[in-house]
Design a protein that fits this description.
Length: about 700
């Protein structure tokens, strides 16, 4: 087994060398690199070291290397290497003599493009929760229309009171969408999110809408519009409900206005006068200029796609699902979400979502095929990933777990995916499928498409085309398949588990400088006794779900150990049993424990929450501290963390899983102290895995 120093050298070499590292931090289990040129990374070589549990590309130039509980050791070792002196790992891009900054790689030359799509992605991601809920309410109403209970598009005054209330439920999200977008966009840019929300909100007030009563008709951007004189200036009136481009432009304008105001207003009174002048400047600017321009931009893109659709709906229906598998990994699909909403607001229907469903269901069909292959070859880890991805896809229309857990990991997946996209797109084009509302394309939202039968046939064709291609021809290259089957064969013969798993379990204990608990010592020698009678209780209140549902390939594949995840309803993490704190992150997002019963536990609050740098978290214990069951370890603010766009799902994993016979998790609602994990110790003399 390589030393920490050797592994550190191995990582730096295969990450592209010390000069390729522009920033390096770490969280509870991962080294987090920012690179000058991500194309220099040798992924296969990186993962060949048994101490490296996996790698995860992140964004354009981000790269995560998963090391397990001993990540701090590797981080410190990397910082001591030549060329990566302390502090050098946090350096920025090279500054030339003329003051210009030099970025390596093609992506580096166009960093503003990367940030633009990151801006769109991080703006829409927090809102998707509300959009998903609203889409299912829409589906219920469309289904009621389909079976003849109540017409979906009937005027509100003709709708029964109960249906009016249900329409209010989904319209609340779409009507006030500009306010939500204004808040999340401003927050992403670093401006005040509530001022960002207030600007588009002003354009949705009864007072602003009431201006139409005294408006006159005029021509604007080739169409008919309403105009009113305000202080002698012409103001074009628009319906800003459901719009996304005006609040995006307003948030960008707010960022620059706030930045300028903070330079000239004394800090002692900024809290009062910065928002005052920001509103005073940005609301009129948005009403007179940015709002109409934003609507023009949205209408222009929508009209272009409408023209393509008018020329040949069949061609557009094939192009869209073939593009999505390449757009989604890069985050380039977010502008199309905005156009879908724009189409519904202006046309009353959308022509993108139907063909997009072909891509989604081709992806889900591929994952279903992976599940069948995994069951057939007894591949437990991949079976878990496929099950979680398939459930999230078919029931929620969410493709990310499937995409990052499977599609982007194996060579042959696109050869199985694209034929399904093409075949489903052909069917969508034949039936000219359109969406009656913005919905996530899942099994539950099929009734929202028109014609429903044509759409159902299209997604079925996409699903089963990719499904059968995987079942018949596999989803991996020959080398990948041979390596996996060799590993599975070794495990079935009771061969020792890879050293990487042992590394994830043991390095955190080495950090503490103390000997492991007696049960852990016994397990490491292969003679553990049955010391676990009741397992591990829940450290956090919430809903327990399988690890496979965690939208992170490392946790979902149980590479850090078996366990469960908790979708929290509580705000404090407690010690589930007596033990010692092995490690606790300064950022407060994760804590590692060595329990007296021999279990080493990692509790990781949220995904990528290390990036908050401690905001929203309070650490209540310190490393090496002795704790008893029920002691508070970490408290956190879920509303703040969610508002920043982070997923709060909390993996609770046994990092020394290999030392036990099995780790089984409970599911459903749990309170602190209730049973969460059943950890079965090995019998006397039984070798550890």
């Amino acid at each position: 087994m390589a030393s920490v120093h050797d592994t550190a050298q191995h990582i730096v070499k295969n990450i592209g060398g010390a000069d390729n590292i522009t920033s390096l931090t770490h969280c509870a289990t991962r080294l987090r690199f920012q690179l000058a040129d991500s194309s220099l990374v040798d992924k296969a070589a990186l993962e060949s070291d048994p101490a490296v549990l996996g790698t995860v590309p992140q964004g354009a130039n981000g790269y995560q290397v998963v090391m397990g509980g001993g990540v701090a050791e590797f981080y410190n070792a990397i910082n001591k290497l030549p060329g990566v002196e302390p502090g050098a790992a946090a350096r920025g891009p090279k500054v030339n003599a003329d003051g210009s900054k030099e970025y390596g790689g093609v992506r580096g030359k166009f960093g503003w493009v990367d940030y633009s799509f990151e801006f769109l992605s991080d703006t829409f991601r927090p809102v998707l929760w509300a959009l998903l809920g609203a889409s299912l309410i829409i589906t219920m109403l469309v289904l009621a229309d389909t079976i003849g209970l109540q017409e979906f598009r009937a005027p509100m005054e003709e709708q029964p009171a109960g249906y009016q209330l249900m329409h209010a439920m989904w319209r609340s999200v779409f009507y006030f969408l500009p306010i939500m977008i204004g808040a999340t966009a401003a927050k992403k840019l670093g401006a005040n999110e509530w001022v960002g929300a207030a600007i588009p909100a002003a354009l949705l007030t009864p007072e602003f809408i009431g201006l139409s009563a005294v408006a006159e008709t005029t021509t604007f951007m080739g169409g008919e519009a309403s105009k009113v004189e305000v202080f002698g200036l012409p103001l074009i009136l628009n319906d800003y409900s459901s719009q996304v481009f005006p609040p995006l432009l307003a948030a960008i304008g707010l960022f620059w206005v706030e930045k300028g105001l903070k330079k000239i207003i004394p800090s002692a009174v900024q809290m009062v006068f910065v928002p005052f002048f920001s509103l005073l400047i940005m609301i009129p600017l948005t009403a007179f200029l940015l709002g109409p321009f934003g609507i023009g931009v949205g209408n222009g893109i929508s009209n272009f796609l409408s023209a393509v659709n008018a020329f040949s709906p069949f061609i557009l229906a094939i192009i869209i699902p073939l593009l999505y598998p390449f757009l989604v990994p890069l985050g380039l699909h977010w502008p199309l979400n905005a156009i879908m909403v724009q189409n519904l607001a202006t046309l009353g229907y959308d022509f993108i979502q139907g063909p997009m469903g072909a891509w989604n269901f081709a992806c889900f069909g591929l994952v279903a095929g992976v599940l069948v292959v995994s069951v057939r070859e007894h591949n437990r880890a991949m079976r878990q990933v496929a099950t979680g991805g398939l459930a999230a896809g078919l029931l929620g229309g969410i493709s990310e777990p499937s995409l990052y857990g499977i599609v982007l990991r194996f060579k042959k997946t696109y050869l199985r995916l694209l034929p399904g996209c093409f075949a489903g797109g052909v069917v969508m084009g034949i039936f000219d499928v359109k969406a009656n509302a913005f919905v996530f394309t899942s099994l539950l939202t099929i009734p929202a498409m028109d014609p429903t039968l044509g759409y159902a046939i299209g997604v079925a064709v996409a699903f089963f085309t990719s499904f059968f291609l995987v079942v018949l021809f596999d989803y991996r290259g020959k080398e990948e398949r041979a390596a996996v089957r060799a590993q599975l064969a070794a495990e079935s013969d009771d061969a020792p588990a890879p050293e990487a798993q042992a590394a994830s379990a043991g390095t955190a204990a080495a950090e503490s400088g103390d000997a492991p608990a007696p049960a852990a010592q016994a397990a490491s020698t292969g003679t553990a006794t049955a010391v676990l009678e009741r397992g591990v209780s829940a450290p956090l209140a919430g809903k327990a779900v399988p690890l496979s549902e965690v939208p992170d390939p490392i946790f979902a594949a149980a590479k850090l150990g078996e366990g469960v995840a908790i979708v929290p309803t509580g705000t404090t993490v407690y010690a589930p049993a007596d033990g010692k704190v092995l490690t606790v992150q300064k950022s407060g997002h994760a804590v590692g424990l060595a329990l007296d019963n021999g279990v080493q536990l990692l509790i990781h609050v949220g995904l990528d929450t290390v990036e908050l740098a401690g905001q929203g978290f309070e650490v209540l214990v310190e490393k090496k501290q002795r704790v008893t069951a029920g002691d508070a370890l970490i408290s956190f603010d879920p509303e703040f963390i969610a508002a920043q766009g982070y997923n709060l799902i909390t993996p609770v994993v046994v990092t020394n899983t290999a030392k036990f016979a099995s780790v089984r998790g409970h599911s459903g609602e749990v309170e602190v102290g209730q049973p969460l994990l059943e950890v079965e110790a090995r019998k006397e003399g039984e070798p550890s895995a």
